[in-house]
Amino acid sequence: MIGAGSMLKDFEAAVTGLAAGESKTFDMTFPEDYHAAHLAGKTVQFEVTVKKVEAPKLPEVDADFAKALGVADGDVAKLRDEVKTNLSREVKRRIQAKVKEQVMEALLTVTPIEVPKALVEAESRQLAENAKRDLEMRGMQTKNIPVEPAWFADQAVRRVKLGLIMAEQVKAQELHAKPEQVRTLVDEMAQSYEDPSELVRWYYAQPERLAQAEAVVIEDNVVSWVVSQAQTTEKSVEFDELMGNAA
C-alpha cells in the first residue's frame, strides 16, 4: 500500500500519481543497509504497470465487525481491549529491537577485533544459501540466478564479529539463557496466536527450535547487561515513527 511505509520511499515517490493503465520505467538505488545484501547499494531498473487503483474504506466498528475479527459475542469493548493489548505488545517488541540494534552497534564500535577468514567465508556461504532459499520461497526459480557468497562479505564480517564479541560477554558475565527465561519468551511469542499452547508445544517438540529461542534470550541478556552498564538517555518517539509509518 502506497504511503503505508512498507515500501522504499524512492519507489513510492516514483509510482505515486500513476493512474490505472499507466506504465513507467525508472531506475532506483537500494539503500546501502538494505536487508537483502545482494541488492544493497545496487541500482536496478523497474518497469511498473498499474493494474488498478484502490483506497481503503474504514468499516463501522460494531458487533458484526467485532465478530468478524474473532470476538464471538460481538463485544466491541472486548475487541478494543484485544487491539490495545496487541499494540502494546508490538510497541514493546519494536522498542526492544531498536535498543538491541543500538547496543550491537556500540559493541562493534568499542570492540575492534580481527576475525578468522574461514569463519567469514562460512558465514558468507550460509547467508548466500539463505538468500537463495528466500527467493525460492517467493516462487522464483533460482537455478540460473547467481547468488554469490562474496556479495554477503560485509554482512558476514559483522555477524561473525558480533558472534565472537557476544560469546565472550556471555562467558565473562554469565549471561547464559535460563530455562525459565526461555519459557517466558516462548509464552510471550505464543500470545499472538489463536492457540498459544500449540506454539509452545511446537517449540518444545524439537531441541533445534528451542535453541532458537535460547539464542534470542542470550542476546536479550547481553543487551540488558550492556544497557545496565551504559549511560542512557530516554527519547520520546511517536507511534507512527516507531512503527515505520512516519511520513
Quick structural gist:
The chain has helices at 9-15, 63-68, 76-110, 117-137, 153-173, 179-190, 196-205, 207-229, 239-242; strands at residues 23-29, 43-49. It is mainly α and 247 residues long.
Describe it for me?
- One of its GO terms (biological process) is protein transport.
- GO terms for molecular function: peptidyl-prolyl cis-trans isomerase activity.
- It is an enzyme of class 5 (isomerase).
- It holds the Pfam family Trigger_C.
- This is Trigger factor.
- The protein has 247 residues and is mainly alpha-helical.
- It folds into two domains: 9-49, no CATH class; 84-229, Trigger factor, domain 2 (Orthogonal Bundle), CATH 1.10.3120.
- The protein is 56% helix and 6% strand.
- The chain contains nine helices and two strands.
- Strands 1-2 form a two-stranded antiparallel sheet.
- α7 (196-205) packs across α8.
- The longest helix has 35 residues, at 76-110.
How big a fraction of the residues is strand?
5-15%
CATH architecture of the largest domain: Orthogonal Bundle
- Class inferred from helices and paired strands: mainly alpha
CATH class of the largest domain: Mainly Alpha
The unreliable regions are: none
Fill in the CATH topology of the largest domain. Answer: Trigger factor, domain 2
Mean pLDDT rating: 90
Terminal-residue CA separation: 14 Å
Largest beta sheet, briefly? 2 strands, antiparallel
Whole-number total of structural domains: 2
Radius of gyration, in angstroms, nearest whole number: 22 Å
Amount of helix: 55-70%
Query: So how many helices?
Result: 9
Strand order of the largest sheet: 1-2
Q: What is the assigned CATH homologous superfamily of the largest domain?
A: Trigger factor, C-terminal domain
The beta-strand count equals 2
User: What is the 3D shape?
Assistant: globular
**Order of secondary-structure elements:** HEEHHHHHHHH
